[in-house]
Amino acid sequence: MRLSGYHPPRERTAVRPIAEVTVPSVAETFRQRLIDLAASAAPERIIRGGQDAIPAQESARGSRYTHVADHYEFVWPVQGRTRIALPGRIVELNAGEVLLIERGVAHSEIVAEPLAAYEVFWLHVRANAALLTETRFTPPASWTPTGPVELSGRVDLQNLASAIASELTARGWGWEGAVKGLLHYLVAIVVRRLDRADEGVLRLAESPVVQADPRTWSIVRHVLEYCEEHYRQGVGLKEVAAALGYSPSYLSRLVSRHLGRSLSEHLHNRRVQAAKHMLENLELAVNEVAQQLGYSDPAHFSRAFTRATGLSPKAYRRRLGGL
Question: Using CA of residue 69, residue 192, residue 38, residue 117, what is the dihedral sign?
């Protein structure tokens, strides 16, 4: 994925800072979103956004914000109506409807016409990780993003999302119950992870309202998706900026403005959270954990982990053994 076609405006986009949201409110908001999604999503109102006759790379040419994600995405309008561009069609989602976008499908979020306020919740599902985000649009051109919240664990959530997509496609006997059960199970796992998540995962500031430039949140979302797919390879600000076609300084300012922390901090926190879960596997040596997270020097990994948690990797593992 490369977004080199976009050139930042010369004049700085006007922003209006708003009050930071406390950690409990962010966590509780997303927790309630997940519970409501599982409770209200009727199988017949879940739309499958699968592969279309139009190849993804061709369908993306008309939109510089279209991206192809290597994971599944559940899109759920909390209020109002939102529009998602897929290959060859635009899906209009009303409150209560859910769109399941499959892996490899090009898509983008576009403003509804005529302009109307809406709020949409996104559940990104990867192999063993979930990413929670939300976007609120207020006319005439004001987007407020919340999140992301990253939650990792041992269960392969991607297999559950794939099974839901298969049931939606085949619609064999009992498919409604199967979809409902699988979705409930997936949401239950994510809610439990949210309940036991460390504060570091949720230490987020409400992003500023971006006036008249919804493109900036789209860029940040692409950055977060790229980081999620490549953080184990030891990428940093320069590598991410080069891969997405932006200057490091521009990308750094943009991410800091939206997340309240730098891109380097985001990557560091992501690796620390992954390390915690990997250290639960006693068969993995600390050096192997460091290597799998992109650290060429195990000592560097140990120092970074100790600074973030107050415990060395070995001490953290010993504490796990006593729980």
Answer: negative
Q: Which ranges in the chain are annotated with CATH 1.10.10.60?
A: 214-323
pLDDT at 182: 92
Cα 207 from chain centroid (whole Å):
15
Least confident of 131-140, 209-218, 307-316: 209-218
Q: Which of 114, 122, 63, 116 is nearest to 88 (CA)?
A: 63
Q: Report, at the CATH architecture level, how domain 214-323 is classified.
A: Orthogonal Bundle (1.10)
Model pLDDT, residue 265 = 85
**Higher per-residue pLDDT: 9 or 68:** 68
Q: What do you get for the CA distance between the two ends of the chain, in Å?
A: 43
Taking a C-beta distance cutoff of 8 angstroms, is the pair 152, 273 a contact? yes
Count of beta carbons in the 10 Å neighbourhood of residue 253 = 15
Instruction: Indicate the helix (H) or strand (E) that contains 289.
Output: helix 286-292
Question: Would the pLDDT of 311 be above 60?
Answer: yes
